[in-house]
């Protein structure tokens, strides 16, 4: 008896050629070392290093989330506690641009040293607790303005409305006098939102919405709805890229998160500002009515608030993906959106949530750590599929030999995903629209796919309703008329006498060369050679494919029966569950093993908002 494990070897007999799953290409492949476009004061003194450590939470966690993204600018180092004053004053007395003193390790108080220690450890530097050259180098890399260590949500005790409260904590590390004057001017200005003035009550509404969210406990660290509206502010375009480029890149950045969690992002250009969940804008220094400045110390490319807004520092030279120089807006936007969704910095190689900008990174994609972190907050994607299959197609290799490839596809309504079995995730940039990727088949709700192959013949068919289409694998489109002269679409009952549509799914069993059509609770075997229904059929699915564990069976109305080349196994798929056909001789033939969740077998097959579906294939 031939079992499923033998499928692959049989397949090799039929296609004795190189046969492999095709691997993906990176979405954003050619980023290179950036050039400095703006003059910034490098961090070369203990004073500036201490400012850095304070600002980003290395001395103690920063009250970041309660700082308003709109409103009066607040000191950048507001959580300095009294015990630090002495040291601070000492540092203040050090000329900012003075030469780096060689005995610096001796002049620092223990808190500074401890902060340096933590910073060095997190950045995988030699831990000296001293301001050495490697540490200063790490501090001078372009970075995100969100502190590395924040006071956790719910533990913040800041007043809810900074604007009305109006209190600022005096700090010797505050901005220059000129900046202080700007502060007062700024606080009287109304915030412009896409050409319309947002009145004070509306501003309060925005803030109240956020503070209410933040007050509601643990769940406030995440959006509670699945579709989020975003807008690039009209007064906040970048000077480096066209408006369309900026919006396109932001759309792509949102889409990358959509591809791994059940969240949709919709660009909304028209709703009132308070209905927009995520507002994005570009600005320099004092910008967009923000409480935080982009100063000229270090190179801060952006900052963002959990469940809030994103500001990009337009003093950085933002560039599209694949640019040789500059800062990739895509990379920065993906990072900042991560903050808005609730992620903090992660000092992990390959993570998009690293605080520093790393120019050379061929795979600008969410890595496993990013995916796990965001799924911890928002859960995994799930959903029903119309059909699942491996598509085998041939392409000439470098030597002109015909090489067979297969890829796994999941169809849902009008979308499809290409799946990478070797890395257990979808290809980047999926889903795509059926009408874009599969020429000639109906644009939605395909019932079934069939790949039939023998040594002599090979067919690929799609089924919907009472009709079916033959697919020309070589030319990647349906036949209007196939080499045998049949016109498509064709009635199922014409091509498969005795079978009438619609069908739920169909499956070619290489073991007995029969095609099995599933409909309702029944299955019908069809012989391709005889062109007839096999005598004795239809039969109950449950009789032909018995449950290995009593009661654990999909019964009928299957979504798909799918033979996977990667897993060398047959899967029955229905709703959110999957059952494997057993290959063990210890169980009755064709037994269905107990069900599992589809999203445990195939990971991160996520919907994206329809407005993002038309983005080109990569
Ligand atoms: Zn960040
Ligand atoms: Zn800002």
CATH architecture of the largest domain: 3-Layer(aba) Sandwich
The CATH superfamily name of the largest domain is: Collagenase (Catalytic Domain)
Low-confidence stretches: 1-18, 23-37, 73-106, 158-219
Number of domains: 2
Structural class: alpha+beta
How many helices? The count is 16
Mean pLDDT: 78
Question: Measured on Cα atoms, how large is the radius of gyration?
Answer: 30 Å
* Number of E-state strands: 30
For the sheet with most strands, the description reads: 6 strands, mixed
Morphology call: elongated
Q: What's the CATH C level of the largest domain?
A: Alpha Beta
Compute the separation of the termini in Å.
Answer: 44 Å
Strand content: 15-25%
What would the keywords be for this entry?
618 residues, alpha+beta, Hemopexin, Collagenase (Catalytic Domain), 2 domains, six-stranded mixed beta sheet, 16 helices, elongated, binds zinc ion
